[in-house]
């Protein structure tokens, strides 16, 4: 068997490291720069959470070339795990996060195994069906909240060795969401240069080459799908604490359309693509809202237009114009 | 006047403006688009009308009221964004809630910001359990009260011996059925429940269930069906086609305009109950109610329905509490409502339970002319 060497990440020059550091510091103080109001904090926290949610879908779309319509399932698993375990058993944030990761890995392993042989349309359909089934269960099963959902989720607590952290307000939640976003970005950046990331891309772009190199595409697909689930799941986990209420609406198409549009809007395999896409969409809905019906029409049209005319997203559009 | 003096005047005006009393902001968050859009617009319109009437009488605490209305799109995540916007705009009160999940998602956000929050329509019991908002106030009736009225009618007025349920299989339907059964026990009901048939919210074909019910031949069938634009009218039609002799007793609040519009005369004979009617006693004898009905009709060209009355009452209740306490503070205002009686609302004198629930006044009615939505009050 041929050993496929992954591209090792280029050694980071000092300037690059410094500019990344500057961006991180700037990002962290962004809500303060935007006035430091509770709306600035809550909007940016929401953007960070939604962006992390989108990165799960991004991994599947960018590296497997598949559209997962089932990631609302992992999003909901995170929310329901945080809500149920914190209200019923008083568990802290670390435990509910661990439970989220474990449950997402298990669910993704199962769903990934079931959809192993499916491609494209059928893959999308089966993942969507899984989300619909999960929705019906969540809606009808009173023990985990039923159609009314769960209220009274306590503030997020993350007891550390020496100190204890408790996030009661949007301002307190911002550092957590920011760190979660940074961790996700770091993970995705590493994943791009990992062996799995490289192989997944090859299996998608050139299956013949991958096969000739002894790559088992099914194993790669399963691994990528399983890795993507806890990313979206942890976003749902934090969302539960931000909103203090979790209900079957976690499965709503609002989140699904947000995930897909944010990923395709800027372009696939662009590291900050989903983050920029999410920020644009949330800003449109909150600052330049055209009213409920029109927002949906705009969102749906943008998704359709981008997919039809610029499948490479805003980045592809920019490249096309800059070449002229 | 030369340009400089003009400018100086303008600046002076600009400086004095903040010193003048600012308007009191009344926020509304209801679905204004999508399937529930028309319903949410009705409530919002009623709120605007009431605020207009208060302004015409000189406002509140010597200040004018303005309405800021927002669209929650029946989506909890959107409702949360709108609630945050209300905080940014420093609303003094927010009247909200058509869908329970949206209300439940917005409650903690508004409560944390210390904004007075009145739920107009959403019915979930969780809204008043105090976990998210210890100062919650709700105008619409609760499932528990609704069930008591229906159970009382079955046991004491109809004196039914054999009862069956045709129940929507979700928290709403099942919750209502178990509440009615609990009330049967309280009332020492001597008869029995002979059959329970269930269906899903989206169903439109009920012939299997109705055939079974016809076979059981109960005295009354208690129906919960919240799908008022398609499922319920279809059920009423099929009920008549199956020629079932049992009394059709509808859960509280299901007989909305759309049911009469679609199923017409097939509705004749249905018995149900609700908490507001523009054209039935006791509301036709209450001056506050008739004045509201007249003003609403003048402003919007149609009779106000229950949801309009709920929106109007929310404003009245809040405004009276503000007037009596001379305060806009959430705790002060809420304590003047919870467990107290507010006089002269469109629902008459409105009594509130200590948990913030308005005590409704039910009217049990029978449909006499379904085509024209003509009802007759019973008892």
Notable traits:
heterodimer; A: 324 residues; mainly alpha; two-stranded antiparallel sheet; 4 strands; 72% helix; B: 379 residues; alpha/beta; Rossmann fold; 2 domains; five-stranded parallel sheet; four-stranded parallel sheet; 12 helices; globular
Notes on the protein architecture:
The complex is a heterodimer of chains A (324) and B (379). By secondary structure, chain A is mainly alpha-helical. The mean pLDDT of chain A is 84. In chain A, a hairpin with a 4-residue loop joins β2 and β3 (164-167). Chain A has a domain at 37-252. The radius of gyration of chain A is 20 Å and the shape is globular. Chain A has a two-stranded antiparallel sheet with strand order 1-4. In chain A, strands 2-3 form a two-stranded antiparallel sheet. Chain A has helices at residues 14-28, 30-33, 38-64, 71-88, 93-114, 120-140, 170-193, 195-205, 207-212, 217-243, 253-266, 273-287, 292-309, 313-323, and strands at residues 150-151, 156-159, 164-167, 245-246. Chain B has helices at 3-16, 37-56, 76-88, 100-112, 143-157, 171-186, 207-216, 231-241, 257-263, 287-300, 306-325, 330-335, and strands at residues 24-30, 65-71, 93-96, 116-119, 137-138, 162-168, 192-199, 220-223, 247-250, 271-274, 341-345, 348-352, 358-359, 363-369, 374-377. With 379 residues, chain B is α/β, with parallel strands linked by helices. Chain B has two domains: 3-141 and 286-351, Rossmann fold (3-Layer(aba) Sandwich); 144-274, Rossmann fold (3-Layer(aba) Sandwich). In chain B, the strands form four sheets. In chain B, strands 2-1-3-4-5 form a five-stranded parallel beta sheet, sandwiched between helices. Classes of the chains: A mainly alpha (324), B alpha/beta (379). Chain A binds chain B through residues 37-39, 42-43, 46, 139-140, 142, 146-149, 151-152, 168-169, 243-245, 247-249, 252, 254-255, 285-286, 291-293, 295-296, and chain B through 31-34, 37, 71, 73, 75-78, 80-81, 84-85, 87-88, 100-101, 104-105, 107-109, 112-113, 124-126, 129, 131-132, 169-172.
